[in-house]
Structures are given as structure tokens and as C-alpha cells.
Specification:
Number of strands: 10
Order of helices and strands: HEHHEHHEHEEHEHEEHHEEHH
Number of helices: 12
Strand order of the largest sheet: 3-10-9-4-5-8-6-7
Radius of gyration: 21 Å
Largest sheet: 8 strands, mixed
Distance between the termini: 47 Å
């Protein structure tokens, strides 16, 4: 509950997910009668979906911390508590980002050695996908947070996306290490000094999608601006190309010949392919699906959660944190 298209797209996404992933079950939180009616008798009879009544709904207009404290019977709060109680291995929501961030910190707690969790989005790049974090959870950061974000992104790309020894870059206004604000200069030195993940230095915004870094680290304010700008630019470019193609007969003929290539590029640039943004750093697997998720995007978010569990992402992060703390002490 709480997403722009909830609960319909969630139900449809669950049905697609169940058909493709035979060895995973769903615990679904929300108004029980409404959800059971949308699921239908056949899905309920399968025994793979258990509906748990959660009458409260946290909306996008609620103040996040007050909503988490007061709306304890909401699908978001009850779902997080379900993971904390180990009734479920992962939680997926398209609801309020702020409520999920704060609820995750309060309910699941932080992994030892992590100061703040980060929203991490997998985005399309020229040669391969890359991860951008933080994408909006922490508008104000300290240098130590950025170093920790680098570790979390590196582990995720290795264990979930099968990118061996991913390179971690730091967003900045120049490639030289003395460039940028005090925050980014200090973060650069911390990331350069650690030995647990591969730090490849500063990455300018124009180079982010070219593929030199498979993990791109930024504070939440900067990361969110990059994310939203990239989404808007992609949409604008496709609209501009379509307008130009349709403006002349020659363009229409050329467009018809190039249609397969354009379709392929559009699929690669589709954010729905990557499901959502994992909330890394909390003691549990949590995925924030897009607020505007359709059924396909929600299904992909569920598949993303399954990969996180099967690859023991949280356990691997713990080990990486132990190593990074050891090298810091040495």
C-alpha cells in the first residue's frame, strides 16, 4: 500500500512473480478483504500468498517519522517488523521513501559499522549497468558515510549483479583528488586509504554512464539530482528523436528500418528492468520499488529481493565491514 498504483500493480506484479519463481512465497500486508478480492480464488488456493491484515496506510503526504510511530498497523511498518521477526527474509514496498528509510533504521537497526543506510539504484550504462548511491536517503552526509556507501555498493554489485571486483568512483566536479567541497575531499582520502574495495578516484557527472566505475558514490542530495536528471534526459531524448522521425516521410521510412535498434535501446534504458533501489546498511533485505511502479517493475523488485537473500547480501556486508574496520585500525 502507498505507491501511486497500489494495490493493483502490486497484486499483478505478485502474480507474475509467482509464475516465474516457483520456490518463493509472499506475505502480503494491507486491508485483508480488499487484497483477497484482488488476488482471486486461484491465487489464494495456491497457498503461496498469505494476506496479513494491515488497515492503516502511510501516504506520501504523511510526515515520515510521525507516520512510522503512529501508523503501526500500516503495511510498511508491519512488513518491516515481519523481517525483523524473521517471518520473512525480505521486504519490498513502493510506498513512502522517507517512512521506509526511517522505519528500516528503527525496526531493523543498522549493521555494525554502518552509520546511515543508503538508497542504491542500479542504472543503465553504456556498456553495463552501474549502481548509484545514495539516491536520496541522506541529504547531508559525512565523509565516513561515503566510504561506507562505497563498500555497500561494491558488495551489492559483486553478489547480486555478478560484477567481479567492481570499481568504485566518487562523484565530483573534477577528476583530480584535490577538487570538490570539504566533504568530497575528505571522503576521497578515506576511500583511497581503505583496502577492502577498489577505489578508482573521482568521476565527473558526464562520465558516470560511460562505464569506468561500476559503483558511483554521492551524498543523497547530489545522487537524487543525478538520478532524476538522468531519467528526465532519457525521456526527453526519446521524445525528441520520435518527433524528428515523424516530421518527414524520409524520417518515417528511416525510423521503420531502425525500429528494432530503437526498441533495444529503449529496453536497456528502462528503469523498470532493475526493479527498485535496495536500502543498504540496515540489518535485513529491503527494496524500495519506484512509487510509480507498474506490475512489471514490482515483479522485478521482488526478483531483486530474492537475489539479495540467496546471495546472503547482509552477511557479506557484515564480513566486509569487519575487514574495512580492521584495515582502518591498522
Amino acid at each position: 500500500m502507498g505507491g501511486d498504483n497500489a494495490p493493483g500493480c502490486v497484486i499483478d506484479g505478485i502474480k507474475e512473480f509467482l509464475a516465474d519463481v516457483p520456490d518463493a512465497d509472499i506475505r502480503l500486508f494491507g486491508p485483508k478483504a480488499e487484497l483477497e478480492n484482488l488476488l482471486g480464488a486461484d491465487t489464494l488456493k495456491s497457498g503461496r500468498v498469505q494476506v496479513v491484515d494491515a488497515p492503516d496506510v502511510i501516504t506520501m503526504h504523511d510526515e515520515p517519522m510521525m507516520a512510522v510511530r503512529r501508523k503501526t498497523a500500516s503495511s510498511l511498518v508491519m512488513g518491516l517488523k515481519d523481517v525483523a521477526a524473521q517471518n520473512a527474509q525480505a521486504f519490498v514496498s513502493a510506498g513512502s521513501t522517507g517512512a521506509l528509510f526511517l522505519g528500516g533504521m528503527v525496526t531493523l537497526r543498522m549493521l555494525p559499522g554502518i552509520s546511515r543506510p543508503a538508497l542504491a539504484a542500479v542504472l543503465p550504462g553504456l556498456n553495463a549497468p552501474f549502481m548509484l548511491l545514495d539516491c536520496g536517503a541522506n541529504a547531508d552526509c559525512q565523509p565516513e558515510y561515503l566510504k561506507q556507501f562505497g563498500l555497500m555498493g561494491s558488495v551489492y554489485m559483486d553478489r547480486v549483479m555478478n560484477v567481479k571486483e567492481p570499481k568504485v568512483g566518487l562523484v565530483n566536479i573534477g577528476a583530480e583528488e584535490e577538487k570538490g567541497s570539504k566533504l568530497y575531499k575528505e571522503a576521497h582520502q578515506l576511500m583511497k586509504a581503505q583496502k577492502v574495495y577498489t577505489f578508482c578516484g573521482n568521476v565527473e557527472a558526464r562520465d558516470i554512464q560511460l562505464g569506468d566505475a561500476q559503483v558511483v558514490v554521492a551524498d543523497g542530495f547530489t545522487g537524487n539530482v543525478i538520478l532524476k536528471y538522468a531519467e528526465g534526459l532519457s525521456s526527453a531524448l526519446f521524445k525528441m528523436i520520435k518527433t524528428e522521425i515523424m516530421s518527414t516521410t524520409r524520417g518515417k521510412l528511416g525510423g521503420l528500418m531502425l525500429k528494432p535498434a530503437f526498441s533495444s535501446v529503449k529496453t536497456r534504458m528502462n528503469k523498470d528492468e532493475y526493479g527498485g533501489a535496495p536500502l543498504l546498511g540496515v540489518n535485513g533485505c529491503v527494496v524500495k520499488a519506484h512509487g510509480s511502479s507498474n506490475a512489471y517493475a514490482f515483479r522485478k523488485a521482488l526478483e531483486q529481493a530474492v537475489k539479495m537473500v540467496r546471495n546472503d547480501l547482509v552477511g557479506t556486508l557484515r564480513k566486509g565491514l569487519e575487514q574495512i574496520n580492521q584495515t582502518t585500525e591498522e
